[in-house]
Amino acid sequence: MTTAQQTENKGQQTRTVAELVEDIKALTTEIQELYCLDQIPWVLGVSWGKDSSTVLQLVWNAIAALPPEKRTKTVYVITTDTQVENPVVSAWVRKSLQNLKIAAKEQGMPIDPHLLQPVIQDTFWVNLIGKGYPAPRNQFRWCTPRLKINPANQFIREIVRANGETILVLGTRKAESSKRAATMKKHQVDRVRDRLSPNASLPNSLIYTPIEDWSNNDVWIYLNQWNNPWGQSNKELFTMYRGATADNECPLVVDTSTPSCGDSRFGCWVCTLVSKDKSMEAMIQNDEEKEWMQPLLDIRNELDIKDDRDKRDFRRIWGEVQLFERNKDGKISVDPIPGPYTKYWREYWLKRLLEAQIKTRRTAPENMRDITLITLEEMSEIRRIWLEDKHEFDDSLPRIYQEVTGEEFQDPRPGADYSLLGRDEWIVLEEICEGDAMHLELMAKLLDTERQYRKKTRRVGIYETLEKCFNTSSRSPEDAIKNARLKRELSEAVSQGDVAKVKQMTLGDVAAINEVDEGQSESDEEVTWASMKFKKENSEE
C-alpha cells in the first residue's frame, strides 16, 4: 500500500460526515472571498471525473450564493478533448458541457465552458500514423504535451495576455498518489495563501486547489449527497466509475468507514503508458452493451508490445543512426536507437483503425453510431506528411481508405490530388530497385525533391536538399550502422586524448577517399558519397 493510500485510509477513519459538512461551509466562504477579492479571471480545468466535478460543483454553488451584482468575474471552464478518449467518457464529457452551458445561461452564472483540442499537427494519429512516432512509453512520452498540456496552456496564455494574470482552479488531491502529495508539498513553500500556489510552468498565474486534503470518500459523499446544480446526474458518474472497476464492486458510500471505488481511472483508449487499460477491460467485461469497444481494446493491446524494433526504422526520424549503450542480462552492447514506424506499419495501423471505426459504427448503441476514431482532417495531414515529408509519392492513403471503407477519399486540402508522380511511377521504381529498400527510398527522395523544387520560382537550396537525401538514404542499414559506430569510436578517442587512434582512424578515411578520387588534391570540404560522385563526373567531362 502506498503512503498516499495509508494517509487516505487514516483520514477516512478520523474524518466524520459532520466534519466534512463544516469543511464544505468553510470552503464555500473561502471561494466566495477569493472570487470577490479582485477582477482576476478564473480558469477551472475539468476532466469531468469525480475530483474536477466536485470542484466545479463547489465553485458553482459558492458563486450562486452570491448576489447577482457580485457575479461579475468570468469563470472559464476548460476541458481538453484528446480525440482518443474512452468513447463512453467522451460522450459523458460532451453531454456535461452542453448541460453546463445551458444551465449557466438560464441561471445567470458567469460560467463560460470551452472544449479544447490539440492542433491537427499534434493529434495522436497524425504523429503515430503520419510521422511514425512509436506508441508512447515512459521513456518517450510524446503524447501528454501535445494532446493535453499544450491546448490548455495555450488557452491560459491567451487569458493572461488579455487580462495580465489568471487563477487556475484544479481538483488536485494529495491522496491521488505519493508523488502528487510530494509535488504539492514542494509548492506549498511559495504559497500566497492557503491552497493558492504559484504556477511553475506558466508565469502570471496561480493554482487554487480547494479539495487538496479530501479523501476519495469525501468526494463521493459530496457528489452523492449534494445535488448537481447544472442538472447533471452524479449517480451516472458514480455508475460509470463502478463499471470501470475490475471487480465491479463499488459500494454505496454511506459513512466514512466504507471503502470507495476511486481507484478506477479513465484516460485515452490508446494509452500504452500503463500495462493494461483496466477501465475499458472492466467496462467490456461488466456490461454487454459496451462489448462494441472490443476492436478499440484490440488495437491498444496490439500497439502495446514490449519490443517493436522489427516495426521501426533503424534511423531516427531525422534520418541519422543514433547509438546507445545498454546492459542486457549483464551483457553490454552498443545498438542503434530504433526510429519511426516503417512505411508498411504506418499503412497497417491506418487500415486497422479504419476497420475498427467501421465495426464500431455497426455494433455500437444508436447514440454512439457516429463515433469517429480518425477525422478527415487528420487523414489529410497524414497524407501530406507521407507525400511531402517522406516522399512516398505512391500516395497510398486514398487507396487504403477506399479499400477499407468502399468510399472515395475526399481530401479537403486544396490541390492535394495534383501530382506529377504517382502509383505507376512508384511501381516502376520498385521494379528497377529489385527489392533493395534503401535504393528505392533514395530514388524516391531524389525524384520527389526535384518535383518539389520544380514548382518554385527559385531553386535555392536544392543541392543541399539532394545532399541530405544521399546522407540519410545512400547506405544499407548495415553500412549506416557501421559508419555510426566508427564515428562513435572516433569521438570517444578524441575525448580520451588517444592521438594514435585518432590518426589511425582519420588516415584510414583519407586513404579511402584517395582511392575513390585518385589524384585529386586534399581539401577541407566534407567528403560524402554525393560530393565524390559529382566531382568524379566533373573530372570525366
TrEMBL record:
<dbReference type="Pfam" id="PF01507">
    <property type="entry name" value="PAPS_reduct"/>
</dbReference>
<dbReference type="InterPro" id="IPR002500">
    <property type="entry name" value="PAPS_reduct_dom"/>
</dbReference>
<dbReference type="GO" id="GO:0003824">
    <property type="term" value="F:catalytic activity"/>
</dbReference>
<feature type="region of interest" description="Disordered">
    <location>
        <begin position="516"/>
        <end position="541"/>
    </location>
</feature>
<protein>
    <recommendedName>
        <fullName>Phosphoadenosine phosphosulphate reductase domain-containing protein</fullName>
    </recommendedName>
</protein>
<dbReference type="InterPro" id="IPR014729">
    <property type="entry name" value="Rossmann-like_a/b/a_fold"/>
</dbReference>
<feature type="compositionally biased region" description="Acidic residues">
    <location>
        <begin position="516"/>
        <end position="527"/>
    </location>
</feature>
<dbReference type="InterPro" id="IPR017598">
    <property type="entry name" value="SulphurTrfase_DndC"/>
</dbReference>
<feature type="domain" description="Phosphoadenosine phosphosulphate reductase">
    <location>
        <begin position="43"/>
        <end position="227"/>
    </location>
</feature>
<dbReference type="InterPro" id="IPR050128">
    <property type="entry name" value="Sulfate_adenylyltrnsfr_sub2"/>
</dbReference>
